[in-house]
Amino acid sequence: MKRLPAMPEFLAPLPLAAVALMAVNDRWLKPVFHNALTGKLSDVAICFFLPLYVSALLALVTRWPRATRVKVGAVFTALLFTALKVSQPAADLFCELLRPLGAPLGLTGFRAVADPTDLLMLPLLGAALLYGRATRVSRAPAASPHPTGATS
Q1: DSSP string for the chain
Q2: Which of 31, 41, 68, 141 is deepest in the core (most CB within 10 A)?
Q3: Are the beta carbons of 9 and 15 closer than 8 angstroms?
């Protein structure tokens, strides 16, 4: 069985918390409160986790170093996020493309509103770049040369 590549930039508590924040915000907080804060929370989360997620996906199909993957993820996120925030037709098309992916999971209410003020969240791409560079691959402790751990 082939081993999956390490993806510490995404498979870590902080990026996964950002995914959870977006899910909770979009599913429960926005419908209940529908205010400026809930309008920006998902944008904050996306600008942080999406470059790291793209980097993790690239780890599955390339042998690029993590720093390169994270940079590509940040550029991809900047281009996609900008297109969605300045063009309602682009936002509508994106939602149409997501519908078949979300349907098996019961996710059907995709909606995006072009709002150029959301571009104020783009500096968070820098935080994703820094985080992606700073993460380390955790390794299991080296096995002791002595089965009992005793030293001679």
Answers
A1: -PPPPP-TTTSSHHHHHHHHHHHHIIIIIHHHH-SHHHHHHHHHHHHHHHHHHHHHHHHHH----HHHHHHHHHHHHHHHHHHHHH-HHHHHHHHHHHHHHHGGGT---------GGGGGGTTHHHHHHHHHHH-----PPPPPSSTTS---
A2: 41
A3: yes
pTM of the model: 0.84
> CA distances (Å), 51 to each of 26, 61, 97, 100, 147, in order?
19, 16, 19, 23, 43
Of 55, 47, 39, the C-alpha closest to 19 is: 47
The span from the CA of 7 to the CA of 68, in Å, is 13
User: What's the distance, Cα to Cα, between the start and end of the chain in Å?
Assistant: 37
| CA proximity to 26, closest of 86, 116, 102 | 102
The yes-or-no verdict on residue 1 having pLDDT over 90 is no
> pLDDT: is 64 or 2 the higher one?
64
In this prediction, residues 16-34 reach a mean pLDDT of 94
